[in-house]
Amino acid sequence: MAWPNPFYRRTENTRTCWGYTFELTPDHLTPEEAHPLKHSYDFLGEECLEILNQVSPPPRSALPRNNSQASQRSGTSGSEEGKNSEKEPQRDLYILLRDNASQNPKLDKLWKEVNTIPEWVDWEQISRGQDVFYRYGGAAFTGLAYQSLLGGMGAARVVETLARTGGFSPKVARRRLFETTQHILQCTRSLDSIKPGGEGFASSIRVRFLHAAVRQRILRLAAQRPDYYSVEKWGVPINDLDSIATIGTFSATLIWLSFPRQGIFLREQEIVDYIALWRYIGYLVGCPTGYFETPQKAKAIMETLLMNEIEPTETSKILANNIIKSLEDQPPAYASADMLVASARWLNGSELSDRLGLPRPNLYYWLLVAGQCIFFMTICYTYRSVHYLDVRKISALRKIFYAIIVESKYGLEGTETLFDFKYIPEYSTITEMGESAQDAARYKGIERRNLKALVIALGTVGVMSWCSLKMATGLFRAVLAVSART
């Protein structure tokens, strides 16, 4: 939770944005310095997408547009989309790039670029960075879902692109979250998975092409109907600044916002390693990597974006609340809407949460979130302090997370996404406020766990306080007895 520090010494460079206080440094970008990044993007990736579309044209048929009304008319849910995708062979742009790289100089340039390991990559460091994610797994997922993603909906420019894909209506947002999580899990599954030829490496290239496809589609629609999307106002869709923000939310936001607000503080080496991991992933997806050269630079760009880019709009409210609706009473967490909102408010603070239109839960759910933080702190600090336990936990969570998100019937049902262009922008595709997902379960698994953690913590504090009081009383009486004898 965002607690103000009464002892913080403010200077002329002190800034406070959305409950977070920091100091401006030369590494922070001014709005004028950041502006060109809104109009630059991954040119090479887009050029290669055009070439691959000629080699293997994309299918003309597309899935329903996935806004609330279209989904209701078609009766298509997020899970059904996964089943439908199995019936039709999917284009794999990564395979197309690999197999055709020698046939075209642009393709060859991109293929050689992604397969050339930057000199700053240290594989041992990358491996340690992967371990960091699982060492703090539960807290990391909580931060990514409710702060990086939901809180990120406060970025006015970014949501204009997301809303036009239709992929954040309640009926499909949950599956889209799982697809994004699949990419993270593939990138952290093993060291070989992120090296050239690995599954995380391949998925990163697919994500790069997906971003290019969305950008192309929106710009083409805007060229035909200028009122559809304003490049002058919002910048090029999925531009360099947006890519930097994405890598930042997966790395810097977790380290300096999400984890501390859950009572978890990483060690310095863990911070360096985790930033290095995401710098390399950023390199693969076509993101400028200079802003992640050091933890200091990564922290500065996070704060720059927090200061200059977060300005919630009505569209922000719609997408943020749709995320809550898509996860309400759904496996594997089975959390109620009030629990989800309390988690989001705990991580994002009241000011931003109010601007995102999130309701205010009662005290009970605040206590449950406190119990969740106590649970995460106990598990994370205990296991990381014992090397043997730390190794076992990381190994186990690698398997458990992948089984739940990708293989289980509650996740992607065993079908790994190829990050194909499913959520296709159309003139009629603007995400609207939706209803809660259907077939919501009523089992309150995560809430019971958090309540138990809170009760145990309060009981422990109570017992320790009682013991301390008894010891202090006994010591005081002993001192009095000695004084009486003398």
Outline: globular
User: What string gives the helices and strands in order?
Assistant: EEHHHHHHHHHHHHHHHHHHHHHH
Distance between the termini: 53 Å
Strand content: under 5%
Number of helices: 22
Average pLDDT value? 88
Q: What is the makeup of the main sheet?
A: 2 strands, antiparallel
Q: Tell me the radius of gyration.
A: 24 Å
Uncertain segments are 62-82
- Number of β-strand runs: 2
Helix content: 55-70%
Total separate domains? 1
Structural features:
globular, mainly alpha, two-stranded antiparallel ribbon, 2 strands, single chain, 486 residues
Question: What would you say this structure looks like, in words?
Answer:
- The protein is mainly α and 486 residues long.
- The radius of gyration is 24 Å and the shape is globular.
- It has 22 helices and two strands.
- Helix 20 crosses helix 22.
- The longest helix has 41 residues.
- 63% of the residues lie in helices and 2% in strands.
- A hairpin with a 2-residue loop joins strand 1 and strand 2.
- Strands 1-2 form a two-stranded antiparallel ribbon.
- It has one domain.
- The protein starts with 13 loop residues before the first strand and ends with a helix.
